[in-house]
Amino acid sequence: MRALQHPDVEDLSLPAVLSALADPVRLRIVAELARSGGIVCGQFDVPVSMSTLSHHLKVLREAGVLRVTPQGSYRTHELRIADMERRFPGVLDSITRAIAVA
Amino acid sequence: MRALQHPDVEDLSLPAVLSALADPVRLRIVAELARSGGIVCGQFDVPVSMSTLSHHLKVLREAGVLRVTPQGSYRTHELRIADMERRFPGVLDSITRAIAVA
């Protein structure tokens, strides 16, 4: 398996993060991750195919919103809450809380 | 002059707001508005043509991020801070503060 790229915290871009979050399915993924901590790929409750889900997870990973960790034949997905908070204080947290009422 | 459309606060969509903000020039416009209160169109300090600026202002208006008020032959632009805060608490505020360090 190819190593998965994650941007360094210093390289996180606000437009890229907002662009990654500007999608209803990706917001739902983020809300689930915020509720649960780490999630294995197949466990997301979103109404899309596995290949579409993989695409959305890649967009979020490449923007630095989440970290993907291979564990055997699975991948665990976690929000990069500390990195996002350090770089853009309050942004991911307020968006996560806004999803519930959006 | 045709009446300018502004979405009602109940109709604001989080993905649409994030999509409107996911652009470096539009973030710069928002930062200027946050600093200044109301701004007349020609006064924005952004490195784009007037027609491109008009496009960016339209995207932000249609997403509900700002309100445009015709005043004679000018248009005044203001952030809809209260509406955004009511609908998505903390989102516009944290993004506005993050722009300075982005």
Give a written overview of the molecule.
The structure is a homodimer of 102-residue chains. By secondary structure, the first copy, chain A, is α+β, with helices and mostly antiparallel strands. Chain A has one domain: Arc Repressor Mutant, subunit A (Orthogonal Bundle), CATH 1.10.10.10. Helix content of chain A is 50%, strand content 14%. The first copy, chain A, has 5 helices and 3 strands. Chain A has a 3-stranded antiparallel β-sheet. In chain A, a hairpin with a 2-residue loop joins strand 2 and strand 3. In chain A, helix 1 runs antiparallel to helix 3. The radius of gyration of chain A is 13 Å and the shape is globular. The relative contact order of chain A is 0.22. The model of chain A has no long low-confidence stretch (mean pLDDT 91). The interface between A and B is medium-sized, with 24 and 24 residues.
General shape of chain A: globular
Structural class of chain A: alpha+beta
How many helices of chain A? The count is 5
Tally of domains of chain A: 1
Percent of residues in helices of chain A: 40-55%
Q: What kind of oligomer do you see?
A: homodimer
Number of β-strand runs of chain A: 3
Which pair of protein chains has the largest interface, and what are the residue counts?
Answer: A-B, 24 and 24 residues
Q: Whole-number radius of gyration of chain A?
A: 13 Å
Gap between N and C termini of chain A: 37 Å
The run of helices and strands of chain A is HHEHEEHH
Instruction: Specify the CATH homologous superfamily of chain A.
Output: Winged helix-like DNA-binding domain superfamily/Winged helix DNA-binding domain
Domain HTH arsR-type (chains A, B): 6-99
Keywords (chains A, B): DNA-binding, Transcription, Transcription regulation
GO molecular function, one term (chains A, B): DNA-binding transcription factor activity
Pfam families (chains A, B): HTH_20
